[in-house]
Design goal:
Helix content: over 70%
Strand content: under 5%
Order of helices and strands: HHEEHHHHHHHH
Strand order of the largest sheet: 1-2
Number of strands: 2
Structural class: mainly alpha
Radius of gyration: 17 Å
Largest sheet: 2 strands, antiparallel
Number of helices: 10
Distance between the termini: 13 Å
Length: 200
């Protein structure tokens, strides 16, 4: 890797890190509050980082997302569940890190197999998004059954149906948004040759 390429990667990594922190801390930039939950668009930044810079950088950006999710839950919660649920790193950090891992590994594998950047980006975006949505909701229901059920006004036995509805209501638009925006952003970054980015 030449000096220009290395400098470009460091610059992009820094920009994406700053962006993820800003998106996490300013609700309408990364989260759209919807009562007891939030519609997430911030995952796209992690997915883009994982595709353009690789799984390790994707995991790092995901880690920043997770850590600042805890900070936001403690200092400026956007829902009643935030201080209860998202101060737990198992819920706030682990799924976010795995988004970067899944998106980066899937993109690399598919691109090397099919040599189609758009297809690889779309599938990586979909699986990366589902990783976050499914894991966060599942861990919420498993680790905080009582508080989550109370927040949604249902019994513990009826919580599964509610959480499946949350996955459907939030997951579908999140996946579609990522599948549309990710290949556009990734294509633009890869096409700017002066960045010197050669992921695949």
């Amino acid at each position: 890797m030449n000096k220009r390429s290395k400098a470009s990667r460091i610059t992009l990594r820094a920009l994406l890190t700053a962006l993820i922190i800003l998106q996490t801390m300013v609700p309408m930039l990364g989260f759209i509050p919807l009562g007891f939950t939030s519609l997430t668009i911030i995952h796209i930044t992690v997915i883009v980082a994982a595709i353009v810079l690789g799984p390790w950088d994707g995991m790092f950006i995901g880690l920043m997302w997770g850590l600042f999710t805890i900070v936001r839950a403690l200092t400026a919660p956007t829902s009643p569940l935030d201080p209860i649920v998202f101060t737990n790193p198992i819920i706030s950090v682990v799924p976010r890190v795995l988004v970067g891992l899944v998106a980066g590994v899937v993109f690399t594998a598919l691109y090397h197999r099919f040599h189609n950047q758009t297809v690889a980006s779309v599938i990586a975006a979909a699986l990366g998004t589902l990783t976050n949505t499914v894991l966060v909701v599942a861990l919420m229901g498993w680790l905080y059954t009582g508080p989550v059920a109370k927040a949604y006004g249902v019994t513990s036995s009826g919580l599964l149906k509610v959480l499946m509805g949350v996955v459907g209501a939030n997951g579908v638009p999140e996946v579609l948004g990522a599948m549309i925006l990710t290949p556009l952003i990734v294509g633009a970054l890869f096409s700017v040759k002066r960045l010197g980015l050669k992921r695949a």
